[in-house]
Specification:
mainly alpha; 83% helix; single chain; elongated; 6 helices
Length: 117
């Protein structure tokens, strides 16, 4: 299941770079939960051709991610934004003048600098 979530995320980033048939096969297999036999019937192709389209398409998605790294960058930024949000929330509820707020702000600055590298 986790692999399908990853493939779907890769498809969201790079799917338009795939040939239309590979896009459709991946969408039907992952999003519509159709079997390869059902997909083959849908397009009037063999089950093996549907399998090959899925396999080639997903391999291309992984290759694009390896070369471009957009999903990895997105995940890194997403984690950083969530971390910043949590820290800001703590600052808002625990705001005191004993220096802790200043330390949290420094951590937030470091996270933002890390995102921009």
């Amino acid at each position: 299941m986790e692999k399908y979530i990853e493939i779907n995320l890769l498809k969201d980033f790079y799917g338009k770079l795939l040939p239309r048939r590979q896009q459709q096969v991946i969408e039907l297999y992952i999003e519509e939960n159709l079997s390869l036999s059902e997909i083959a019937d849908e397009f009037g192709i063999s089950r093996q051709a549907a399998h090959d389209a899925f396999k080639t398409g997903t391999e291309t998605l992984y290759k694009l991610e390896k070369e471009l790294g957009l999903v990895g960058k997105f995940k890194k930024r997403d984690r950083a934004v969530r971390d910043i949000d949590e820290r800001i929330g703590r600052l808002m509820t625990e705001y005191v003048t004993d220096g802790r707020a200043n330390e949290e702000l420094k951590k937030i600055k470091h996270i933002i600098d890390d995102i921009n590298d």
